[in-house]
Amino acid sequence: MAVHRSPTTKPNPCAARDAKIATASITTATKSATATLPRRPRSPRAVRTAALVGAPSLVLGVALAAANLRPAVTSLASVLDDVRISVGAGHAWASALTAVPAVCFGAAGLLAPRLSRRFGLARALGWALALLTAGLALRVLDGPPVVLGGTLVACAGIAVGNVLIPVVIKQSFPHRIGAVTAVYTAALAAGGGLGAAATPWLAERLGGWRGALAAWALLGLAAVLTWLATARHGDPVAAAGERAGRGRPMRRSPLAWTVTAFFGLQALVAYTVMGWLPEVYIDAGVDRPTAGVYLAVSTLLGVPLSLVLPPVAARARTQSAWIVAVTVIGGSGLVGLLVAPAAAPLLWAVLAGFGMGVFPLAITVITLRTRDSADTATLSAMAQSIGYLIGALGPFAFGLLRGLTGGWTASLVFVLCVVAVQVAVGYAAGRDRTV
């Protein structure tokens, strides 16, 4: 039986061409119609979680905010004995007062990521600077409880800034982390040095320590106004490639704990030096204004170190060698204070200040050991909150040992032991890994 096949239809070139033209016309018309539709409004949450616009004006805002994060501590240290005698407090109160900043940095720093998620970086840092300014003005109004309470309020604002400014740098300047970190840490060191050097001078001209300490609230007010003018969130779409929300849990990461321990050890040494160095010099026969200048030298040395170390270290594959070298140099200054404090006081101050230059390396390590800004915020909060609680032990133990022994030998040996541990932990934290 024959099988009948239907004749094959040959394709019509004209019909195929017409179909392509029609399809292209429909696609073009659809795109045009879609383009004319109004854009969906950005949600408030999307705006809050977007990165701040990384304009040069924001660098100015970051720098002025950073300049306010240390004078609350160093200005008080330079007139600590005058404050203690004036308010009728004892050495135990002075030891507690020098430990307050680090304790507050640790406790309040835990809240910083939550504040950022709820209100956004711009508002959270703006309120933090306002709180800092209010605390600086409040603490000069009355006796020991008010001095202590005002310092707590000011340091709560500082704690939020400590945690969130590295996040701003990571989000808004992802290709200039080293350079902007250098600006941040240099401004921070400059503010600390200015607080130590200028406060005794201001006390002579403003009628005592109350006017001198209150004057630093003006610098805080300037930072608030500058931040309000320069910090604004960008387009959430521009940050689409960046993972938003909470960072990954860090408490199970050995590297995160290593970075936290390193940050805590350097904070312990730095806040001990900033809180007690003038008193060590005064007991060695140096007059109070000169002792304040030596503390200023130690902190101001951080300015050039902060400008040089972060960019250079960030370009290196590992930061371990830099951390070890800076820490050992700082330890040599503490050895000088232990052996012969009056023999070369300026040299010891310079060497100790060089050692505090490890702080910008600690900030750089936090940003380099994470993959994105969400993890940076989480690690920054962990390292700074727990790290500053570790750091609070330093000033308190230093003063306590001084009270128990009647001299500074045991106190300085204690700090040198911490420096030795910092060398090993800092080397591990500087290795090329991410959490």
UniProtKB/TrEMBL annotation:
The chain crosses the membrane at residues 49-69, 89-112, 124-141, 147-169, 181-203, 209-229, 255-277, 289-309, 321-340, 346-368, 380-401, 407-429. PANTHER family: 2-NITROIMIDAZOLE TRANSPORTER (PTHR23523:SF2), PTHR23523. One of its GO terms (molecular function) is transmembrane transporter activity. The keyword Transport does not apply. This is MFS transporter, CP family, cyanate transporter. Keywords: Membrane, Transmembrane, Transmembrane helix. The keyword Transmembrane applies. It comes from Actinokineospora iranica.
